[in-house]
Amino acid sequence: MRILVTNDDGIFSEGITRLAEAIADLGQVIVVAPDREQSATGRSLTLHRPLRIRQVKEHWFTVDGTPTDCVSLAVQGLLKEEPPDLVVSGINFGVNMGDDVTYSGTVSGAFEANQHDLPGIAFSQEIEEGFSFKRSAEIAHDVLAELLLHPLPVDLLLNINIPAKEPKGVRWTRLGKRVYEQSVVEKIDPRGRKYYWIAGTPRWESLEGTDFMALSTGHLSVTPLHLDLTDYRNLEETAPARTTLEGLQWPGAEVAGE
Ligand code: MN
């Protein structure tokens, strides 16, 4: 078992160090992670400049790019001869739940695994009093060891959030829903111009069966995700605009033999 480890907090963050150390007995661990923090870069891919891989120590490499770049370069370049069997991303400083998962570089690292037919697992840590990366890395180890007892499909993507306190157990969940709140702060800079800062702590709707609900009751949350963002419910004929839009025709288009 070869395990590629990445994250979005950067290679020098405590979460990735603890994780890589904790899972070393489960396989050969290779770390390929951003050389600086890349939180909230989502699935950003660097196309407009070259990327460099730099070795930090044995089996540890940095990339001057995003988590998506790291996994892409590792699988298709650095580890091309001996590709990994699994990508593990994290442990992120802060939860990645509900609507926020598409912002997350941590979750995107796992998404990129699926892009290369590899299972991906993302770990994020709730930051509240009592949290410890040392402990959450042990928990991540136990969860991974259990998962590895089963065959992992190549499109498996698990988004795992670890509560700050010792978990009461594991909940298999769906994504929760963020509550809208004022999160952009407007201020004046020293030259008298306006600037804006995206801030605020997300709040969540109390919905049964969600990742948020699991954490708020002290459980570890496991949410299976999928890269296919198609809204299958609205593919149904009942979608309001479907019939009229599908009846729309432009003159000049070849209609016959379509
Ligand atoms: Mn992060």
Which characteristics define this entry?
globular, single chain, 258 residues, binds manganese (II) ion, alpha/beta, Stationary-phase Survival Protein Sure Homolog, Chain: A, two-stranded antiparallel ribbon, 9-stranded mixed β-sheet, 23% helix
Plain-language structure description:
The protein has six helices and 13 strands. With about 260 residues, the protein is an alpha/beta fold. It has a nine-stranded mixed β-sheet, sandwiched between helices. A two-stranded antiparallel ribbon has the order 9-12. Strand 3 and strand 4 form a beta hairpin. Helix 1 crosses helix 4 and helix 2 packs parallel to helix 3. The longest helix is centred in the middle third of the chain and has 15 residues. It starts with a strand and ends in an 11-residue tail after the last helix. The site of manganese (II) ion has 6 residues, from strand 5.
How is the topology of this model organized?
Elements: E1 2-6, H1 14-22, E2 28-34, E3 53-57, E4 60-63, H2 67-78, E5 86-93, H3 105-115, E6 120-125, H4 133-147, E7 157-162, E8 170-172, E9 178-179, E10 184-188, E11 194-198, E12 203-204, H5 211-216, E13 220-224, H6 242-247
Parallel strand pairs: 1-2, 1-5, 2-4, 5-6, 6-7, 8-13
Antiparallel strand pairs: 3-4, 7-13, 9-12, 10-11
Bound molecules: manganese (II) ion.
**CATH architecture label:** 3-Layer(aba) Sandwich
Mean pLDDT rating: 94
Broad CATH class: Alpha Beta
What is the helix tally? 6
- Small molecules in complex: manganese (II) ion
Global morphology? globular
Characterize the main sheet.
9 strands, mixed
